[in-house]
Design a protein that fits this description.
The complex is a heterodimer of chains A (412) and B (144). Chain A has 412 residues and is α+β, with helices and mostly antiparallel strands. Chain A contains 5 helices and 19 strands. In chain A, the strands form 2 sheets. A 16-stranded antiparallel barrel of chain A has the order 1-4-5-6-7-8-9-10-11-12-13-14-15-16-17-19. In chain A, a hairpin with a 4-residue loop joins strand 4 and strand 5. The longest helix of chain A has 22 residues. The chains are: A alpha+beta (412), B alpha/beta (144). At the A-B interface, strand 1, strand 4, strand 5 and strand 6 of A face helix 2 and helix 4 of B.
Chain lengths: 412, 144
């Protein structure tokens, strides 16, 4: 008797739940996550290789085998409040600027579909600068272990607290997507307390074209950039009167206009793929003008996809500066001036200029999992430190570096 | 009263039918509800609907793609035959959209009969199913 009542009530509840789900499908909640477990070994033990420009340590000097370079966990919650309105939040747990693993907000925005073609987003979002920018942390969705730094490092600030408008439309089999974004971003960086990189008046315009297996993307970003970590150096120059003021005005990164233009394309008919990007960044500051490019091709053999990448980054602006004239300075001041000049030239000369060849393979060994192995040979230009940080006295710029990387990526 | 020629032609028909049945009877077909006016669809449009790039049928009606569960033979066959993509490639494609807040993959159903039942009751839905499961409530869409 009791069990019959229970069954009847259960049926009623089930029925109620079913009809509720049909009449009112909103809000729809969706929880997802992704992650990478990676290990990197570098044959250069006098400096650290890092994937993120703001990482404090990586492979080489600090670790023989570094899990910090590529490992991360991302968790996200998506809520469709109505058919037009949704909320989207994503946190990432990975090595932070201060060496901690405090979760950081990667995405947190509200989206409203104004029409079938036009939608607006407000909140934290990743800039649509490069082909894989917005999902560069989702290893499972990438062909490589990490996007080629020669291009992806050209943009120091990759996300913003912003308002963005997207316009999507279709002509024949061509899907067009135009996005305009305006906002700002402050990032904490390694070094002294409250050191930050600030991007103000950050604007990005991007256009993506997709047709079947073919994707094309071009984007332009501009911002007023400030990098606090350089301030002491240029404050030093300013002590030296007009000559020093002039150097500070030329090289300081204090609300300095910084621009980036990129073009990329991908063709992926299924059994093989080829993709490449080209980007150019300009800043009339110590950050200088740089351009980078890469091309990657891969061939799928069952569950295994070997790939090869050629990449290159170059500095287009001067890699040295005469600095303060030392003639006529009292010896004590000349010593300080010499140190300031050395500091400036160290920054200008060590900028990443390198070519690299990367070979790797992706193996989709289980549903939702992939294993990747990658070998990077980085050939640093004379005087350049490439993407190496924490350089020790024994480090010699301009050599070559071999990186051995392995990762397991997953999604759920 | 059956002549030899009639018998032969009957036999011929049966042969043709049995030969035709090989590909047709065990073929994967694209289906919509009987009330859906859609009769044909471009291969490119079908791919874009299943990749989340296109949300309308050519006549302007809303298009809701439906999947069979991960690992189902029909699902792997569909993505391989019509989109040229492996299950891992499709998973990677949706990872790009999911983790940038741009979309969620199609709803998935356990098997062919469930697909037919769901599509039959939802004029916006489009699905794929082994032709042995279809009934008069759904219509086969020809793919150009």
């Amino acid at each position: 008797m009791k069990s019959k009542q229970f069954a009847a009530i259960s049926l009623m509840l089930l029925h109620a739940a079913g009809s509720w789900a049909q009449e009112s499908p909103y809000p729809k909640w969706q929880f997802n996550g992704y992650g990478t477990l990676g290990l990197v070994h570098s044959n250069e033990n006098q400096a650290d290789f890092v994937a993120d420009i703001f990482d404090p340590e990586g492979a080489g000097h600090s670790s023989y085998l570094s899990p910090e370079v590529d490992s991360r966990l991302g968790l996200q919650l998506n809520a469709e409040v109505t058919s037009d309105l949704s909320l989207f939040g994503q946190i990432i747990v990975e090595q932070n600027y201060d060496g901690s693993y405090k979760p950081e907000l990667e995405w947190a925005n509200i989206r409203y579909d104004i029409t079938r073609h036009l939608s607006a987003r407000l909140g934290r979002m990743v800039l649509p600068t490069f082909l894989v920018s917005e999902y560069r942390n989702v290893g499972y969705a990438l062909p490589w272990i990490r996007p080629p730094l020669e291009v992806y490092r050209l943009l120091p600030v990759s996300s913003a607290d912003a308002l963005s408008l997207s316009y999507r439309f279709r002509t024949g089999d061509f899907n067009h997507s135009l996005q305009a974004l305006y906002g700002q971003r402050n990032l904490d960086v390694p070094g002294a307390d409250d050191n930050q990189v600030k991007a103000r008046d950050l604007a990005t315009l991007s256009y993506m074209l997709e047709r079947g297996a073919f994707t094309f993307l071009t984007s332009y970003s501009a911002s007023e950039l400030s990098v606090d970590v350089f301030d002491p150096l240029f404050d030093g120059f300013r002590q030296f009167g007009p000559a020093g003021e002039k150097i500070a005005a030329r090289f300081a990164v204090d609300n300095e206009s910084s621009r980036l233009l990129s073009v990329g394309a991908q063709y992926d008919p299924g059994d093989w793929f080829v993709m490449g990007e080209l980007a150019s960044s300009t800043s009339r500051s110590v950050l200088g003008d740089n351009h980078g490019m890469y091309v990657t091709a891969g061939y799928r053999i069952g569950d295994v996809t070997p790939y090869l990448t050629l990449a290159k980054v170059d500095v287009d602006s001067d890699s040295s500066d005469p600095g303060l004239p030392l003639a006529g300075l009292p010896p004590a001041l000349a010593g300080i001036a010499r140190e300031l000049n050395a500091g400036l030239n160290d920054l200008l000369g060590s900028m990443a200029a390198q070519q690299s060849v990367s070979a790797g393979a992706r193996w989709d060994f289980a549903t939702n999992f992939t294993l990747k192995l990658q070998l990077d040979h980085m050939d640093l230009e004379q005087g350049s430190a490439g993407f190496l940080i924490d350089r020790q006295p024994g480090f010699e710029a301009g050599g070559s570096v071999l990186l051995y990387s392995a990762s397991i990526d997953f999604v759920f | 009263m059956s002549t030899i020629s009639q018998r032969l032609s009957l036999l011929g028909c049966a042969l043709v039918l049995s030969l035709a049945c090989k590909p047709v009877c065990a073929e994967l077909v694209i289906v919509v509800a009987r009330d859906n006016p859609l009769t044909r669809l471009d291969r490119a449009e079908l791919a874009d609907i299943y990749l989340g790039r296109l949300s309308r049928f050519p006549d302007g009606g809303r298009a809701v793609p439906i999947d069979q569960r991960e690992g189902a033979a029909a699902r792997d066959e569909f993505y391989s035959d019509y989109l040229g993509q492996s299950p891992a490639q499709i998973k990677a494609h949706w990872s790009k959209l999911i983790f940038t807040g741009r979309g969620q993959p199609p709803r998935s159903l356990p098997n062919g009969p469930a697909m037919v039942e769901f599509v039959a009751g939802n004029p916006e839905a489009i699905g794929y199913v082994d032709s042995q499961h279809i009934n008069s409530d759904v219509r086969i869409v020809s793919i150009d």
